Input
Amino acid sequence: MLSKDEKQVTFNGEAGVEALEFWKRLSSEGVLKIPAGDEASAQAVQDFANGRSAMIFGSTAGLTNNLSIAKENGFELNTAFMPANKVNGVPTGGANLVMTAGLSPEKQEAAWEFIKWMTAKEQTIYASTYTGYLPSRLSAVNSEEMQNLYKETPQYKVAVDQLEFGKARPMADSYPEIATILRDEIARCLLEGTSPKEALDQAASLANPLLK
Output
């Protein structure tokens, strides 16, 4: 996504254009449906629940809910790695726990105690079991409770196995804003007809100044 020195984006190179061209072709051929707007995620889940789509991309945090939807609607739900072309890959990140700067010592101590509690083995097992969200500790993954869950419902283990191919999101300060720019230009490409190269070049022209 970014150069090694994080001074410019690289997503508009050959690999990025190839990926977006593939995505656009799937969309134009009617293989891939891409909802738009603030309710896009909810629309995708609704289409899947109603049998209007056979596959859905989503966070592990929705697995328990999606298994329940499948059961209610009488179909079987399985999970799989993110589709790969030349190599496997999956982004990581999501429910971050942070302690903000400038807190009083008392609040720092309270925040640290909460973070330790929230990421403890017991809470990790609970959260992962009841949502499908990735366990945040190896001790939880290897626990008897989680191992039994993986045997009973192997759909929960796929995301854990896929971490072998995980890639952290860039930590550049401006990356969240860059990600929004990229998302908007991809949407224009898929929904308004802009070519993949044009869309990614436009995103790069808006993003690069933010890195400088």
Notes: The chain has a mean pLDDT of 91.
